């Protein structure tokens, strides 16, 4: 990420979410704000999606991870969660469209430059900010999340859901497990949904080329992928960190659930993790 500049990968993900509403008829994720937040950018978004090296796969994956996080939030609130924390929020719109906002204290955590850019875009699009939402500016590699979050009013004694999408691959392992360690010790209990990628060498050749192209593209804009995880060791490490329930949703399950008519995905690649300390 360029110093002082908003995240370009966050913008790219937002364009693919918006394109999903049009090109896929919102078949995985219904997000009425995905187009609005981008304003006049929609034609760029569609061109970006049509020309993407990964074809429709990355667009579907991005829609699926948002859908899983949204479903997890709905279930968590019914089970007693009262706080939503969106880590590395980018241009995610969940906080602005969830009908549960009045039952939640919401915290959006992001790099200061990306957060400032988003707030301008929300204002331009006339998207209402829930009264229950607080913005928390944090650089995950240089600042400690607990102090920043709790200073904004986060209550460690209340049950919370953390949505952490499109962020983990761009962080170092120490930064990732520092955050997971914090979540695991929260007295009120925590759930987290995040995505990660298997090492490129373990992916089948057909998928490896697309993966390498994506890695090179994000590195060229200053947002290099820094962390890859094999699934079994990651699950073991999360259990050791303090997560009791761990559900890993891999490429094959994602394909079966969200795009069954497409050519079957390889068993390795992008995963979505949903873990809980409860």
From TrEMBL:
UniProt KW Transport keyword: no
InterPro entries hit by this protein: Ppm1/Ppm2/Tcmp, SAM-dependent_MTases_sf, SAM_mthyl_Trfase_ML2640-like
GO MF, one annotated term: methyltransferase activity
Matches recorded under Gene3D superfamilies: Vaccinia Virus protein VP39
Superkingdom of origin: Bacteria
Pfam families the record matches: LCM
Main enzyme class: transferase
Keywords noted in UniProt: Methyltransferase, S-adenosyl-L-methionine, Transferase
Function: Exhibits S-adenosyl-L-methionine-dependent methyltransferase activity.
The name this protein goes by in its record: S-adenosyl-L-methionine-dependent methyltransferase
